[in-house]
Specification:
The complex is a heterodimer of chains A (about 475) and B (about 100). Chain A has about 475 residues and is α/β, with parallel strands linked by helices. Helix content of chain A is about 40%, strand content about 15%. An eleven-stranded mixed beta sheet of chain A has the order 1-3-2-4-6-5-10-11-9-7-8, sandwiched between helices. In chain A, a hairpin with a 5-residue loop joins β10 and β11. Chain A is globular, with a radius of gyration of 21 Å. The radius of gyration of chain B is 22 Å and the shape is flat. The chains are: A alpha/beta (about 475), B mainly alpha (about 100). The interface between A and B is large, with 74 and 50 residues.
């Protein structure tokens, strides 16, 4: 059961060779042992999990099982789940029990999936290493001295360490793809607007998008089928016909044009990452693909643009945490203003405060045009680069991250170095495109390397087809860390 | 452009975050590095480019002007720091 894909697991459940309760107990045991060493979860509630598993078993017995019924899912602690602690990795929400379910949670519950716990994450999803969590860093199962990436580090570590077969995450600047790469699993960020943000604690609303983690591209498609769909409660949810994201998995790739952005390969990639990506390109040639050089000339500006827009939106979104209606309130204060200031100073960690301050500055009088509007203009140029590139190719391929998992503490003292580790992922969020990461090799220290695929708008099914065909020809995605 | 301590204290006040003198120095150091990175934006000419606020350039959807929410104030106030008689309590603001 340890290394089963979601697809294999549902086959076993449907054939009644194993029950959902047995599956849940198997993974809960792992979460309570290895999960503690890795610090991958913030909350676990065995009673709730087993109740859901029993309900799933009844559905299976009644012949009403769907593709996710009885499957354990680990949810990033950014999704409100009724009755569960929903902390967003922050002291601000350390005791917050969500009074309602996020749309994503509703969808999984309706499908009969079983929540096995809420996973650790960078505070308010602000980080690339999972070191900003109030609940402590998550450890990478491939080497526990290294980070699992972030911000969805707990979800990625959970799937990589086989603490759950699949998990959910969110991606504002790479927070699904980068941890998937650093932990040797698959993760997908859909086109902006495909998955409802209702009940997902907001960081940067024009960039935030939820998506799945799994071992295979096929499993990602099954997960996305449950997660996607119009929801009137999110004003940016797109009204589109439902689609089956697994429909194109088996299509051969002969004749497919794969775009290689010159800027991705120019500099910055570690030699081990470059080697693994080159080998992936060679594999795609064998599958009949044609490589096309494309250019994203404004990509180098994506990091500065992101660090204006995301903090600006965050400073607005996080103004709701004031110690009045929910969340942390300082124990001692003077007047109302002092209560706000002390509650926010004590409730937020250093990185979150830093970003609120950046955002407040770039939106303040006299700086708005020079920073915020300037960044929005550059955002358009970055998006236009992709539109031009997709006239020449069907999918874009490159690295997900410039390096493999780095040591805990290595970059946490230098925000700029940390921000630059998202150089390959951020432009995708700015353009609103779908992107994914899948494992494609290891470095000399046996740490996983991820390759990134970027699709055109609503090109999720195509992207999953391209990933699935690679996974039929290779086995990087089934490798597990030693000793787990 | 370089930031000074007064900027840090001003934006901390606007953001309603208490920052003590020692913390302000540290924040200044970090923010200066970040603004040096952000400054790279100014090298590109964006004359005539329209700002982009939505990835698909869509307008937000409007809904009918109808009541859609049920009254859940009891559930919502159960998690508030301080409530009395269905009201959120805060320090006195009018003398």
């Amino acid at each position: 059961m340890l290394n089963f894909t979601l697809k294999q697991l549902t086959t076993e459940l449907a054939a009644k060779r194993v029950s959902s309760v047995e599956v849940a107990e198997f993974f809960l045991k792992r979460i309570n042992t290895l999960g503690k060493t890795l610090n991958a979860f913030i909350s676990v509630d065995a009673e709730k999990t087993l109740t859901a598993a029993q309900a799933a078993d009844r559905l299976i017995a009644a012949g009403k099982a769907g593709p996710l019924t009885g499957v354990p899912v680990a949810h990033k602690d950014i999704f409100c789940a009724k009755g569960w602690l929903t902390t967003c990795g922050s002291k601000m929400l350390a005791n917050f029990r969500a009074p309602y379910d996020a749309h994503v949670i509703e969808q999984f519950n309706a499908a009969g999936a079983v929540t096995v716990g809420k996973t650790n994450m960078d505070e308010f999803a602000m980080g690339s290493s999972n070191e900003t969590s109030f609940f402590g860093p998550v450890r990478n199962p491939w080497n526990t001295q290294t980070v699992p990436g972030g911000s969805s580090g707990g979800s990625a570590a959970a799937v990589a360490a086989r603490l759950a077969p699949v998990a959910t995450g969110t991606d504002t600047g790479g927070s699904i793809r980068q941890p998937a790469a650093l932990t040797g699993i698959c993760g997908l960020k859909p086109t902006y607007g495909v998955v409802s943000r209702y009940g997902m604690i907001a960081f940067a609303s024009s960039l935030d998008q939820a998506g799945p983690f799994a071992k295979t591209a096929e499993d990602l498609g099954i997960m996305l089928n449950a997660m996607a769909g119009f929801d009137p409660r999110d004003s940016t949810s797109l009204e589109r016909a439902r689609e089956d994201y697994t429909r194109d998995l088996e299509k051969p790739l002969a004749g497919l044009r794969v775009g290689l952005p010159r800027e991705f390969f120019a500099e910055g990639m570690s030699p081990d990452v470059a080697k693994a990506i080159d080998e992936a390109i060679a594999q795609y040639r064998k599958l009949g693909c044609t490589m096309v050089e494309v250019s994203l000339p404004n990509m180098k500006l994506s990091v500065p643009v992101y660090y204006v827009l995301a903090p600006a939106e965050a400073s607005s979104n996080l103004s709701r945490f004031d110690g009045v209606r929910y969340g942390y309130r300082a124990p001692e204060y003077g007047d109302l203003s002092d209560m706000y200031k002390k509650s926010r100073a004590q409730g937020f960690g250093a990185e979150v405060k830093r970003r609120i301050l950046i955002g407040t500055y770039v939106l303040s009088h006299g700086y708005y045009d020079a920073y915020y509007i300037k960044a929005q203009k550059l955002r358009r140029l970055i998006a236009q680069d992709f539109v031009a590139a997709f006239k020449q190719c069907d999918v874009i391929l490159g690295p997900t991250s410039p390096g493999t998992a780095f040591k805990i503490g290595e970059k946490s003292g230098d925000p700029v170095q940390m921000y630059l580790s998202d150089i390959y992922t951020i432009a995708v969020n700015l353009a609103g495109l779908p992107g994914m990461s899948l494992p494609c090799g290891f470095d000399r220290a046996n740490l996983p390397v991820g390759m990134q695929l970027i699709g055109d708008y609503f090109g999720e099914a195509k992207m999953l087809n391209v990933a699935h065909q690679y996974q039929l020809a290779t086995d990087w995605h089934m490798r597990m860390p030693q000793g787990i | 452009m370089s930031l000074i301590l007064d900027d840090v204290n001003r934006i901390a006040h606007l953001a309603r975050i208490e920052v003590d003198a020692k913390e302000a120095e540290q924040v200044l150091g970090h923010l200066s590095g970040i603004f040096a990175l952000i400054g790279e934006m100014q090298a590109v000419d964006t004359a005539g480019v329209a700002p982009m606020s939505h990835a698909q350039d869509l307008m937000l959807r409007l809904r009918d002007d109808a009541v859609t929410e049920a009254d859940q104030h009891a559930a919502f106030q159960a998690i508030a720091p301080q409530v009395e008689a269905d009201l959120y309590l805060v320090p006195k603001v009018i003398e």
